[in-house]
Design goal:
Length: about 400
């Protein structure tokens, strides 16, 4: 170990930080020039290149700072107190699926070059954004029900909606082919911002690591997921939200009078979907509605639940499904409304800049770090016939 080697590592790290700052400056200039419009394909490519350069320079600086610190540490005597109580990882966490806390920790590491207020846009590396959405999805009832996911870097995403099919007919040899009949319109969807934030103590950030950040990160993600679910199910489009599945104009409907007494309403709703060339793959209802269904008995005086799969086994588990279709529960739906739909024909549109962002500006005088989780998302139902809402009245 030599002092010269230590200085080389430090110099290389400083050079990497300078290169990262230059890439960040170029990224800011690029995005500042497109504040009021979407980036062009060429600009998006350049944006991706610059974000990749920033991540590469960060990694290089980190490696050489660690190497410099290791060599400096090796040149002095160690005290047992130097490592007492520490649980620092070996770096292998970079190679496995990140936990929410690790994503937040990575955001803290890259905050200086990417998520400062001066960038104009709070960028996260694209890989971190993808992992954030992957971790967010299991906490969302709508996403867990199997809806399709679309990632976009644009402000607005367009779906082609077929209004009428081509006209086909039998013709003779050399006759003109039938034309016309086909009609399509674009369905434009603009992802809306749903976010949660808090101020956490710097001691927690510096000493706790990803293990201590996990509860905070999971709580933030759950808040964002619940906010997305609420809009995705019952959003009206008023204010700053988007239109949810149950409020989408043109979806099919089935009315039930006298409360739920059997499974006939579901048979009717599923039949309406199939008549529209769709298949029921998900049912979403309020937890109390599901509890009411579980209380139904096969016959008067019987102890066997109507939803039980095993004859004579009233104490067996009840699978959360109706006629083979999985049931999902959400308290956001009214107790008198039930949604049935083909999940693959419903789309959740996510902007790629979703993720964790951090800043020490807001909490500077309180020795804290501001942390926020942001998702930009919306729901699209291009084929409204693939959804049927059951409305129950007493």
């Amino acid at each position: 170990m030599s002092g010269k080697s230590f200085l080389n590592h430090a110099d290389i790290a400083i050079t990497a930080f300078a290169a990262r700052d230059e890439a960040t400056r170029k990224l800011k200039a690029l995005t500042d020039g497109a504040i009021s419009r979407s980036l062009t394909p060429g600009e998006r490519k350049r944006e991706k290149e610059l974000i990749g350069d920033i991540a590469e320079h960060d990694a290089s600086a980190k490696r050489h700072m660690i190497a410099a610190a290791t060599e400096a540490s090796a040149m002095r005597a160690h005290s047992p107190l130097d490592t007492l109580g520490t649980t620092r990882g070996s770096g292998a966490a970079e190679d496995r699926k990140a936990t929410p806390g690790e994503l937040m920790a990575r955001s803290l590491e890259t905050a200086r070059g990417i998520t400062t207020t001066g960038t104009g846009k709070a960028f996260s590396p694209e890989q971190t954004a993808a992992q954030f959405v992957d971790l967010l999805a299991p906490q969302s009832v709508v996403m867990e029900s199997g809806v399709s996911r679309v990632n976009t870097a644009s402000e607005t995403y367009s779906f082609p909606v077929v209004r009428s099919d081509f006209s086909a007919g039998f013709i003779g040899e050399l006759d003109d082919l039938p034309t016309g009949g086909f009609g399509a319109d674009p369905l434009k969807v603009t992802p809306k911002k749903v976010a949660a934030a808090d101020l956490i103590a710097n001691e927690l950030v510096q000493d706790g690591g990803s293990g201590f950040l996990n509860p905070m990160a999971k709580s933030l993600m759950r808040s964002v997921a619940l906010g997305f679910d609420r809009e995705a199910l019952v959003g009206t489009g008023a204010g700053k939200g988007f239109v949810g599945i149950s409020k989408t104009p043109g979806i099919q409907a089935h009315a039930v009078t006298g409360g739920l007494k059997d499974l006939d309403p579901f048979i009717a709703a599923f039949g309406k979907l199939e008549a529209a060339h769709a298949e029921a793959t998900a049912v979403v209802m309020h937890p109390k509605t599901w509890a009411g269904l579980m209380a139904l008995r096969e016959t008067t005086g019987s102890l066997k639940p109507l939803l039980s799969e095993s004859a004579g086994a009233p104490t067996s588990n009840i699978k959360r499904a109706i006629l083979g279709v999985n049931v999902w529960l959400s308290s956001f739906l009214p107790e008198n409304e039930i949604l049935t739909y083909e999940a693959e024909q419903i789309f959740a549109v996510f902007r790629k800049d979703a993720g964790f962002q951090t800043s020490d500006q807001y909490g500077f005088l309180k020795d804290g770090m501001a942390v926020r989780a942001i998702a930009r998302a919306a729901i699209a139902v291009p084929n409204v016939s693939a959804v049927c809402k059951i409305t129950v009245t007493a």
